[in-house]
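User: I'm putting together notes for a lab meeting next week and I want to include a structural view of one of the chains we've been expressing. I don't have a solved structure, so I'd like a prediction I can at least talk through. The sequence is below, exactly as it appears in our construct file.
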Amino acid sequence: MITNNKNLTRNIFFGFILGILVGIIFNLLKDSFPLISEFLIKDILKVGGEVFLKILKMLVVPIVFCSLICGVCNLKDFSSLGRISLKTITLYILTTSIAITLAIGIASLIQPGLDHGREVMSDDINIGIAPSLSEVIINIIPQNPFKALVEGNMLQVIFFAIILGVSIALSKEEGKPAADFFTSLNEVVLKALGILMFIAPLGIFCLICSTFASQGIDMIIELTKYFMTVIFTLLIHMVIIYGSIIKVIGGISPFYFFNSIKESMFFAFSTSSSSATIPVTLKNVQENLNVKKKISSFTVPLGSTINMDGTAIMQGVATVFIANIYNHSLVFSDFLTIILTATLASIGTAGVPGVGLIMLGMVLNQVGLPLEGIAIVMGVDRFLDMLRTATNVSGDAMISFIIDKSEK
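Assistant: Thanks for the context. Below is the predicted structure for the 408-residue chain, given as C-alpha cells.
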C-alpha cells in the first residue's frame, strides 16, 4: 500500500491551501494580464487538474469492481451479506432524511432570499428529466454488464460485482482460480493507486487553483445568505449528527474520526466527486479506522452512489431560497414532499460534479417552483458542490465504521 502517509497528507494539505491562495491572486490579476492569466488558467492549471482527475476516475471502476468481488468472496456466509446490505442502506437513507429535514428547518428559520427577492430567467439552462424511483430500481440491473463497466454506471457495476462474487464463492474449489485472479488484480490496481498518490498534491493544487482563478469570490458575495445557510447546515450535520453517531454508537472521538479521514475529505473537496474519491476513502477507512475490507468494499462504493447527505442539504436550502425569491409560500405538505423527493433523488444521484443541480430540478417540480430558479444558485454551486461532496464522503466513512463495529 501507500507509504509515508503523514508526508502525503501534509503535502496534499499544502497543495490544497496553496491552490486557494494562488487561485485568488490569479483571479485578481487576470484583468491586468488577460493573455498570461488565460494561458496559465486554461492551458496549464485546468489541463493539469483534468489529467489528474481523469487518471483518478480511470481507477475507480476497477477498484470498486475488484474490491467488491473480493469482499463478497471472503464472506463466511451469505446471511451476513444480506444483513450488511440491509443495515447499510437503512442507515444511508436515515441520515439523508435527517439531512434534508435539518436543511429545511434551518432554512425556514434563516429564510434566505426573503428580504431581497428578485427573478432570474435564463434560456440557457438545460435541466435533464430526473429519473423516477421505478426507473432507478430497474436501471440497477445491467442489460450488458460490460457496457456498465465501460460507462462507469456504479449501481450496475456494484450489482454485477455482487452477483459475480456470490457465484465465485458458491463455486467453492472450482471458483478458487477466479477468486485468486480478482484478488491479484485488486492488489495490482491498488498499487497503481499508490503510484498516482505521489502526484496527488500537484493535481489537487491545479484543481483548486483553477477553480478559484476562474470563479473568484465575487459571485459568493451576491448570495451570501444562501451560501452561509448551506455551509452552516453542512457543518451542523457533520459535527452534531455524524459526531453524535460516532461518539455514541462508534465509541470513538469525533476529532479522531475526522482526523482519520481528512485526506479523503481534501480529495472530495478538490474533485467535487464522491466516485472519484472512492479509492482514497477506502484507503482511509481501512488503514486509519481499521474497517474490514469486506465491509468497506461494499459500503463505500454504495455510499458514493446513494448517500448524498450534502446534496440533500443543498436541495432543501435551495428550495426554500428559490421559493422566497419567487414569493412562493411553502406549506407543511410541501416540506414533506421535499423531504421524500430529495431523499429518493439522492439514491438516483451519481457521484459526479454538478449533478445535484439536475436533481434539484426534480425537487422544484414537485413543489411547483420554476426550474429557472436554478439559475440563481448556479453561480455559487461550484463552491458548495465541493463542500457538500466532503460531507458526502465523511458520511460514507462514518457508516462504514458503524457497520464494521456492529458486525464485530
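A couple of points you could mention at the meeting. The chain is about 80% helix and 0% strand. The chain has one domain: 5-407.

User: Perfect, that's what I needed.
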